Amino acid sequence: MSATLRPSQIVQLQSFWNLLQTTDEGVQRELYVLLQHKYSESSHNSRLETPSFLQMEGILKGNGNQETDSQMLDEYLQEKYGV
Q1: pTM over 0.90
Q2: Could you tell me if 17 and 64 are in contact, meaning their C-beta atoms sit under 8 angstroms apart?
Q3: What is the DSSP string of 10-41?
Q4: Taking CA 76 as the corner, what is the angle to CA 78 and CA 23, rounded to the nearest 5 degrees?
Q5: CB of 50 closer than 8 Å to CB of 43
């Protein structure tokens, strides 16, 4: 699967990944299981060999920083809840 992402989407993905990296190992493992379960069913229909989500660890790690992550969280809360 190939996707073209806008710069804002790349920042969102990096911030999301950095947030995941700050959680404990139990939360990360459960998220990997949930995502792999969700997307493995659709991968049976595709002919391309795709890595499991656990194999992608490290590939998705971005160079985000705490300031950017905090700013994105604040913007999300403002848009979603008006906080």
Answers
A1: no
A2: yes
A3: HHHHHHHHHHHHHS-HHHHHHHHHHHHHHHHH
A4: 130
A5: yes
The residue with tokens 């790690």 is 61
Span 7-61, pLDDT tens digits: 888 888 888 888 888 888 888 888 888 888 887 765 455 555 666 766 666 655 5
- Look up residue 21 and give its amino acid: Q
Find, among 5, 12, 57, the residue nearest to 31 by Cα.
57
Encode burial over 68-81: b for 16+ CB neighbours within 10 A, e otherwise: ebeebeeeeeeeee
